Amino acid sequence: MKKTLMTLMVLTVGLFLSSCASQGYNTQKGAAIGAGLGAIAGQAIGRNTSSTLIGAAVGGLAGVVGGNAVDQHVAGQPTTGAHQPAATAFGYPGTEISRQDTPPGQWVEVPGQWVGGKWVPTHKVWVPVNP
What whole-number distance in Å separates Cα of residue 42 and Cα of residue 55? Predict the structure, then answer.
């Protein structure tokens, strides 16, 4: 009973510690937290040095995997910290728009060009006209 309670307590603390994600170095933080919690869990379960070392290794590996996933998720997020509202989209040229509140403007064809090291093919954009 004591082992089960200790294991559940260690896993709960690990869940709370690993859920606090901040930007950068989450792989290293995850490895450290996972190794520490794995060592505690290994000692609580096996009561010997080999169980502690195995728990530290397994926990460290799980922490590295989880921390790396968080780092990759955070890297895909915008760094401004503010949520940008979605722009209102209007139909593509040649499609029928059922809304009557279409702003004044016109469709303009933009030639293909290199932008930021990537090729952007020829496309059309709506250029609004201020009344």
Answer: 4
Given a contact cutoff of 8 angstroms between Cβ atoms, the answer to whether 25 and 16 are in contact is no
> Where exactly are the structural domains of the chain?
2-75, 88-131
Asked if 113 and 126 touch (Cβ cutoff 8 Å), the reply is no
In angstroms, rounded to a whole number, what is the distance separating the alpha carbons of residues 46 and 50? Answer: 8
pLDDT at 8: 62
Pairwise CA distance, residues 47 & 28, whole Å? 27
Q: For each successive 10 residues of the chain (131 residues), what is the average pLDDT?
A: 65 58 73 89 90 90 88 71 54 56 80 90 87 61
Neighbours of 35 (CB within 10 A): 20
